[in-house]
Amino acid sequence: TIHTWLERFNKQKPHSCEKVTAPVDEENWISHMEKIFDVMGCEDAFKTRLAVYKFEGNALAWWKAYKQAKGGDAWLVTVTWADFKKLFFLQFFFPRAEQEHLKREYHSIRQTTDLSAE
């Protein structure tokens, strides 16, 4: 059960995740979680739930809102660890608004460069 996994997980002293300020932070936290999961022999079905248990602050607020928007606990049980890692990076660390802002900035720079080349 999740309670057995949680007890074993906490004995490994997993790091919390409050906010991520650089891709390396996100990668280090995920690697830390995977190291713990490997040593525990953790089943994929429990990995996401155990990882988000260590969310605090901004990460926890983002997760609660995201999970609710997707359908709550019914959705959560369908999320694989691979899916979680993708959405953690794309939605929490690099949210859509930031992606769109960078796309617009890139196209603006590209248009300026194209015009100056003529």
Automatic annotation (TrEMBL):
Entry protein name: Zinc finger, CCHC-type, retrotransposon Gag domain protein
Boundaries of every Retrotransposon gag domain copy: 49-113
